[in-house]
Amino acid sequence: MELGGLPDGQGAEDTYYQCVACHSTEIIKQQRVTDHRWDELWTWMVEAQGMVEPDDETKKVILSYLKANFSSER
User: Among 2, 3, 6, 45, fewest CB within 10 Å belongs to which?
Assistant: First the structure.
């Protein structure tokens, strides 16, 4: 399945559908922030940008995927 060029892996599909509701995958792919910053960005997107937060398990899967593939710590 084509997911906007996101790397394959557990969470790619959840990440794609969660994120492209508001922006392209290009925004995701250019990020190289710390794991902690991903947590902060998530909170900001929910609180300031009105992102609809998924259930806790899906949130965990998405944040794990983002940190594994788009973190400055890897």
Answer: 2
